[in-house]
Predict the structure.
Amino acid sequence: MRDTSHIPVLGAEVVSALAPHDNGIYVDATFGRGGYSRALLGAARTKVYGIDRDPEAIAGGRKMMDEFKQRLTLLQGPFGAMDILLAGEQVKQVDGVAFDLGVSSPQLDEADRGFSFMKDGPLDMRMSKSGPTAADAVNKLAEKELADIIYRYGEERHSRRVAKYIVEARSKGALTRTGQLAEIVRRAVPRSDDNIDPATRTFQGLRIYVNDELAELNRGLAAAENLLKPMGRLAVVSFHSLEDRAVKEFLRVRSGGARAVSRHVPIANNQRAAASFRLLVRKPYVPSAEEMRMNPRARSAKLRIAERTDAPAIQENAA
């Protein structure tokens, strides 16, 4: 199987959804190896801003910046601050924003980054390479808090057992390696029939916690809402249910739905803010069988797309 780590998942569908045009301005909110950026730059005479909080991703994209001269600009920082980052470039509105959520292929493939349970490395998991690490979490958090994190963000039903095993292991010495943690989790979690490694969900939960990914996603979607001009397009590729649920809920509210205080006390129509997005499809796009065959990492991907209306951005305390 050929290396597909540089090929963006659902790349053709994302570019089609954003419909790039000459002189349009687009944001690749999760630059990574620049797959979406390259596709957008190749589709028309566009200007692209690539954002990534990983300094290695930005450094790796310098050659691509040289290739596309003034058409590609890379900005290091969290995509939740994209509106602030672009304001620094004197950009107030854009024609499209693309997100490719979760861990990038380089982060997963490089053992030293500490994301993979398949390769032994330091227990790190930080996308930005700053702040507390996964090792800090597993060695310092109380057992209940660890269990809650693994359950909430990893959707691991054996979370209490996993947390108990971690606390027992760390009492004999600090946990500093991904291999150590993976083996502990494999002892705690029964192997299922679906061939998924028992450590998968725990590593996912810790990664999301360490990088504050769900809160950052909400900030990023709101920032994109602020930046997109009327008829500008939003395309979001997610890889697990927590991400997709957050994107689906954001778009539901922004396209005219309302958050009710209770399902028994619905919000009145006159309390709804004007829709700031129009859904372009009701059901998400998923990869083709051929794409999943060529790139197994694409198998759980979902793409949701929407178009910005001319209504003001909806504030969190509105409808």
The first strand starts at residue 25 and ends at 28.
